[in-house]
From TrEMBL:
PANTHER family: CYCLIN D1-BINDING PROTEIN 1, CYCLIN-D1-BINDING PROTEIN 1. InterPro entries: GCIP-like (IPR026907), GCIP-like_N (IPR049317). Gene3D superfamilies: I/LWEQ domain, Talin, central domain. It comes from the Eukaryota. GO terms for cellular component: nucleus. This is Bgt-4629. Residues 54-202 form the Cyclin-D1-binding protein 1-like N-terminal domain.
Length: 373
């Protein structure tokens, strides 16, 4: 054995200790207490920048590690150096990123999303380091001792780390506004889907019961079998005035999707870069503080989600021809839509604009209607 090989061999206990240290660091995810961060104690560092840079470092180190491990012979000292750098900087930074991304400054959506994506990196790193520890062939310095299958498996796990890092890095590209817009568009599209289904149901033939009476007993039995689980239809006589309720509901749902689009265009796409801690103290230029903007955003997004949920219940109540429940869901859905429109009535300077005037008209259209029985 050459002097160089002896030196490399002597480093193996150090490498094993480094691997164990990293696994212990990553285990902290299970019982991480976190820093006591508040808007007042938060640093001026933008957490999305920190998350991006940390994920980029993790990705770069894992790329180097993968190249070293999958190309023979393995240089133990180089592998140990890369793992040591991971343990010293990027891995602790992952936990710091989670702690600093408080919902009061970054919105509940971003805080939850960043935490989820960061934890995915931690999980994928655990899988990779465990594989590095358990597959002895990966770190064997023999030029032919690592099978092709083991190399491919390691590359597969490496790819999952890359994907998780890319996912976290994407948050800076999207920004707070971008992620909020994506979520608002998702809720808008779901309501559009529910509206389309309700319209399709309303257009279907409603005289199936009359046709059944004219058919033979065998055909009636077949019809009954095929109708199990199918939505009921409004009778021609419409004794409970369901059709006027359908017309009112479809009109208001269309207006609600327009509200979501208006919020996206007039409020989310004009959202200032957050957080802006440095200028929060200058009330002359910035009358609305970051924490207040974030509170409004959290509130309106939560209402959008509830409106979507209630819309599903509303459409289901039409399928059941349950007039009492229909009226209840109509009131819940459109009262909430009216309230949601008022949350962002003023722009981010606290002043009225064309959207403010449109909201007043929207709220008038959302007023509760009384239907005759």
């Amino acid at each position: 054995m050459s002097m160089e090989s002896k030196t490399e061999a002597s480093l193996r206990p150090t490498l094993e200790a480094t691997i164990e240290r990293i696994l212990e660091l990553l285990k902290e995810d299970d019982n991480h207490q976190g820093l006591a961060v508040t808007p007042k104690t938060s640093t001026k560092l933008n957490v999305l920048d920190l998350a991006h840079d940390t994920a980029s470092l993790v990705r770069a180190h894992i790329t180097k590690l993968s190249l070293l491990v999958t190309n023979r012979p393995v240089t133990v000292s180089a592998v140990n150096r890369i793992l040591d750098e991971l343990a010293a900087g990027p891995i602790p930074s992952l936990f710091i990123t989670i702690d600093l991304c408080i919902p009061e400054l970054y919105t509940s959506l971003i805080s939850t999303e960043l935490k989820s994506r960061t934890k995915r990196i931690i999980s994928e790193l655990q899988s990779l380091i465990k594989k590095l520890s358990s597959e002895s062939q990966l770190l064997d310095d023999s030029p032919t001792n690592c099978s092709e299958k083991i190399r491919k498996d390691f590359l597969f796990v490496t790819g999952k780390v890359w994907d998780s890092c890319d996912s976290l890095m994407e948050l800076r590209t999207l920004g707070i506004a971008g992620l909020l817009i994506r979520k608002a568009e998702e809720y808008r599209d779901l309501i559009k889907d529910a509206l389309y289904e309700l319209q399709e149901w309303a257009l279907e033939e409603s005289d199936e019961e009359d046709l059944d009476e004219a058919q033979s007993g065998e055909k009636i039995s077949t019809k009954i079998v095929h109708s199990f689980g199918s939505p009921r239809h409004v009778p021609d006589s419409d004794p409970t005035s369901i059709r006027p309720r359908i017309q009112a509901t479809t009109k208001k749902l269309r207006l609600t999707t327009l509200l979501f689009e208006a919020i996206i265009k007039r409020r989310l796409k004009t959202l200032p870069v957050l957080p802006r801690i440095e200028i929060d103290a200058n009330l002359d230029e910035n009358p609305i503080k970051t924490v207040e903007i974030v509170r409004l955003l959290d509130c309106v997004l939560e209402m959008m989600k509830k409106i979507h949920d209630i819309t599903d219940d509303l459409v289901s109540s039409f399928y059941d021809l349950d007039v009492e429940q229909i009226d209840l869901e109509i009131d819940r859905c459109f009262s909430l839509a009216s309230k949601a429109s008022g949350i962002l009535l003023n722009d981010w300077r606290g002043k009225q604009d064309p959207f403010s005037n449109w909201v007043l008209k929207f709220q008038s259209e959302m007023a509760v209607e009384r239907f005759s029985e």
